[in-house]
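Quick start: read one record
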Amino acid sequence: PGLLWLGFVLSGLLALGLLALVGLVVTFQAAVHWIVERELTRTLDARVRIDRLRISPVTGTLTATGLSVYDKSSRQPLLRIQDVEIQVLPGALWYREILITHLRLVQPEAWLALTPGGISWLSLGVPGDNSPSRLAVSFRNVEVRGGRIHIADRRRTPEHREVVEAIAVSLRDLSTRDDRREARPVLTLSGKWRGMTVSAEGWVAPFAQRRAFHLPMRIRRADLGQVAGILPPGLAPPGLAGNAEVAVDVQGQEADSGW
């Protein structure tokens, strides 16, 4: 009887321990969910919502489903991502850095606008000198599959809209660290625009003091009439028609008056 009673006690303590552990895990997940939404809201200066978020401290893996970003004032959609998978190197936190070894985005959808001042989208600026110190964020490898971009050209009247689909992106070694902000990480991308295959390989510097990019682009089997419609006035001869391989050197740098 004594041994039986002891077995019941141990079983009860084990059950309580498991319940406490489950409670801690649930609380931890909820806390991380709230923190991630809050930090993304601060960083992007937009409304951020995540439907579901799961994190494994042991493997350093975070998965999120249904991430949505909206403009703060107009509440217009800026970004939606079906699934996000992040692998983090926990040891980098000792050096005040969030080191993401792999970031995978599945079926992201973005809405951006072309204005006389440049590209209007998410705010990815660097905090000012008076802002509290934050952790640096570094990406070793970023992968995007099945993306879509909605482009509104507000430089025209009426506003002109385009959609680029089936987007694939690969980006390596991007960081907000002070000693790496001016680096030029290699970016490759491809997609479908009006049935034509568009690809680019170059570099981007989104966290530099003056943001910049250089993306030489190629359009395979391009419909010259459609391509001429998106080029600046006077660049393409009137009545251009036919199909050809088109190469366009696209580059820009931020200045005090815009891009």
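Confidence is low (pLDDT under 50) at residues 2-9, 19-25, 125-133.
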